[in-house]
Amino acid sequence: MKTFDLIVIGSGAGLNVAAGAAEQGLKVAIVEEGPLGGTCLNRGCIPSKIVIHSAEVAETIHRASEFGISAKVNKVNFKFVTDRASHAVDEDSHSIERNVRSEKNPMLFKGRGKFVDRYVVEVNGERIKGKKIVIAAGARPVIPPIPGLDKVSYLTSTEALRQTILPKSMIIIGGGYIAVELGFFYASLGTKITILQRNEVLIPREDREVATTITNLWKKKYNVITNADVLKVEKQGKGVAVTLKFGNSTKKISAEKLLVATGVKPNSDTLQLEKTGVKVNKNGFISVNKFLETNVKNIYALGDIAGVYLFRHSANLEAEYALQNLLGKKTAVDYYPMPHVVFTSPQIAGVGLTEQEAREQKKSYVVGKYHYKDTGKGFAIGEKDGFVKLIVDKKSREILGCHIIGPDASVLLHEVCVAMKAGRSKALELLRTTVHVHPALNEVVQRAALNVPV
Q1: Is 403 a known active-site residue?
Q2: Beta strands per DSSP E along 263-342
Q3: How many angstroms separate the CA atoms of 297 and 337, rounded?
Q4: Would you call 134 helix, strand, or coil by DSSP?
Q5: Which of 62, 87, 94, 438 is catalytic?
Q6: Average pLDDT for residues 162-179, to the nearest whole number?
Q7: β-pair type (169-173, 257-260)
Q8: Is the peptide bond before 106 cis (omega within 30 degrees of 0)?
Q9: Cα separation, 165 vs 175, whole angstroms
Q10: For the whole prediction, is pTM greater than 0.90?
């Protein structure tokens, strides 16, 4: 049995740990069942943002008449759209694997890894032992126990990004960030979508004002049914039918395709963790402390499988700390501030507490808000609904949270993140006093800061 200084299970952010440890002279093994690069590269944030850009281009054309230009989308080469993403990520993944295989350290073990003892992993019948282990095996789409779902053909986010024929209609079960990103993608290119959301708003974990705004906007554009309880799913001709209950009504709707986007679950149940004694929480995420250590000595976990945050940028951050910690330079992970973005239309970005969280935590706070349309650039681009919202501690003036809905929200948020990182007590003043280009879109952030009544 081969023995390694470190075994890393998972080649997403885990690959960063493996490569860094090998550079420090440790003998390292990487265990990966699927294509190298992890969820983000192969079936997550990278391919989704490539195809979503096509949707953004289409949406710009759809709005052309608002700016005095006559234009329309005459044809969508859907296969080109998805192939462009698939080919790009496949080549990147193959390139990573070629590079790993060209080196003796780290050593790649391609296949599903399962623990057979506390520090022993079996891959394709071969057992390897690690003095230290990092578990970064990610997560996968969760499939809800809906009657009939196992008897029909349906898509998850993985398959939705690899379709080559644009469906005429699609039912989306779920109303979180995956649902609204892929819903926007398909709808903008011509699919008639119906979203079934069991909550009263879309993306309910966002600030309630933001969630309410996008829900109201989407109900005007698409068939969005909130407070929907899906009762059953069944085949209907070449398509699918869904029976749902909302309020006092029961309804059956049908479509060509069905997309299930109801969240993700950690891959901890595929690893035989019971052989290690590593603890998981009630949702199956591996429990870690602030140093990314599990309850078992010399076994660490990071990324989606640990569930602290479910972002690639947080996993990359954790990988940096995990590497230092297993090398003996023990440091607690500093997540502050941790931003996130939903790449839909309108874009949504946030960092820190939502207003409902601030209330639940009994924070003494004030709000500063400003609409895009009240800035020069916001008016120029015809943005009617977007806004920036800052939640600020009344006494300390610390920015507790920032939430943006509107064009380039993903870019605008970083100004706030940099200010927050510069100093908790200084952030608000930095936003207020830094000279902003006029009429750049960033002025909406500054004016929201100036509207904070402290």
Answers
A1: no
A2: 264-266, 299-301, 339-342
A3: 29
A4: strand
A5: 438
A6: 98
A7: parallel
A8: yes
A9: 23
A10: yes
